[in-house]
């Protein structure tokens, strides 16, 4: 990729996975490591962008220490939403690479929930906002490019892309990087493959290899959009 095709651009990348507290010691969470988001932030910085990395529960050892990357740590979906929208107000690009919890406990107790002889109490859930869909609908800044990620498993018909297309249309993001996940791909430190769709579900790019190579494929598609908008 061009060395500085994001020079002068401001980008926001969310990474990691949100945690929704149940009580002071327990949470609902997911297994997202944050590596893809971290590699997106590093690739953007390498290509000249100024980056805000909104890191949801990313291990300290993974969080980059880079002069062009400002890190904002968050835990819950509502915190992630505030941080992304705050930084996103002035950003040319927002990439939602974080795994966001769809639900959160309706109440969080201030004391640790105890075992009782009557057995476990049910945990009531409420729905979290869809941050990506909100960003796509609200357009915090004119001309902003909004990018989502979707991890899809092939089903009986194996059609990962059909699910991706449906999601691209439903979310309204400018670009959606669709990632096939399964037993041996997608999570942790393993090779990755993405197909990049536009809001109509048309294929506009592909990336495979390391998460860093996938990150560059995403930025290639973003840079092409930004160029098209300014010419
Ligand atoms: O619907 P699904 O969770 O598969 O969509 C994934 C994409 O949507 C990711 O970009 C993720 O960051 C974003 N998302 C979000 N808010 C949610 C759920 C997902 O921004 N509540």
Question: Topology, please?
Answer:
Elements: E1 10-16, E2 20-23, E3 26-28, H1 35-46, E4 50-56, E5 69-74, H2 77-88, E6 93-96, E7 103-105, E8 125-127, H3 131-138, E9 145-152, H4 160-171, E10 175-180, E11 192-198, E12 203-209, H5 211-230
Parallel strand pairs: 1-4, 1-6, 4-5, 6-9, 9-10
Antiparallel strand pairs: 2-3, 7-8, 10-11, 11-12
Helix pairs in contact: 1-5
Cytidine-5'-monophosphate binds at residues 96, 98, 100, 102, 128, 130-132, 148-150.
EC number: 4.1.1.36, 6.3.2.5
Family: In the N-terminal section; belongs to the HFCD (homo-oligomeric flavin containing Cys decarboxylase) superfamily.
Pathway: Cofactor biosynthesis; coenzyme A biosynthesis; CoA from (R)-pantothenate: step 2/5; Cofactor biosynthesis; coenzyme A biosynthesis; CoA from (R)-pantothenate: step 3/5
Brief write-up:
It comes from Georgenia daeguensis. Helix content is 28%, strand content 28%.
Plain-language structure description:
It is a single chain. The protein has 231 residues and is of the alpha/beta class. It contains 5 helices and 12 strands. The protein is 28% helix and 28% strand. A hairpin with a 2-residue loop joins strand 2 (20-23) and strand 3 (26-28). Helix 1 (35-46) packs across helix 5. The two termini are 19 Å apart. The model has no long low-confidence stretch (mean pLDDT 92). The structure holds cytidine-5'-monophosphate. Cytidine-5'-monophosphate binds next to helix 3 and strand 9.
Average pLDDT metric: 92
Helix share bin: 25-40%
**What is the tally of helical segments?**
5
Can you tell me the residue ranges where pLDDT is under 50 for at least 5 consecutive residues? none
Query: Can you tell me the overall shape?
Result: globular
N- and C-termini, Cα separation: 19 Å
Query: What fraction strand?
Result: 25-35%
Cofactor: FMN; Mg(2+)
Domain DNA/pantothenate metabolism flavoprotein C-terminal: 6-224
Keywords: Decarboxylase, Flavoprotein, FMN, Ligase, Lyase, Magnesium, Metal-binding, Multifunctional enzyme
EC number: 4.1.1.36, 6.3.2.5
């Amino acid at each position: 990729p061009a060395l500085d095709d994001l020079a002068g651009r401001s980008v926001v990348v969310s990474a990691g996975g949100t945690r929704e507290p149940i009580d002071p010691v327990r949470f609902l969470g997911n297994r997202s490591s944050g590596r893809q988001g971290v590699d997106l932030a590093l690739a953007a910085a390498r290509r000249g962008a100024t980056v805000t990395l909104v890191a949801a529960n990313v291990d300290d050892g993974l969080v980059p220490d880079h002069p062009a990357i400002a890190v904002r740590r968050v835990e819950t979906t509502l915190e992630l939403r505030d941080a992304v929208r705050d930084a996103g107000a002035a950003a040319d690009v927002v990439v939602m690479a974080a795994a966001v919890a769809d639900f959160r406990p309706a109440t969080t107790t201030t004391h640790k929930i105890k075992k009782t002889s009557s057995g476990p109490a049910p945990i009531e859930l409420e729905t979290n906002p869809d941050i990506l869909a909100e960003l796509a609908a609200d357009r915090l800044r004119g001309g902003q490019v909004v990018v989502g990620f979707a991890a899809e498993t092939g089903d009986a018909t194996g059609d990962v892309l059909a699910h991706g297309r449906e999601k691209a249309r439903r979310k309204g993001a400018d670009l959606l990087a669709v990632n096939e996940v399964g037993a041996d791909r997608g999570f942790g430190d393993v090779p990755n493959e993405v197909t990049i769709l536009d809001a109509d579900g048309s294929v506009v790019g592909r990336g495979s290899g390391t998460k860093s190579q996938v990150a560059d494929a995403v930025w290639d598609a973003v840079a092409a959009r930004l160029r098209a908008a300014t010419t």
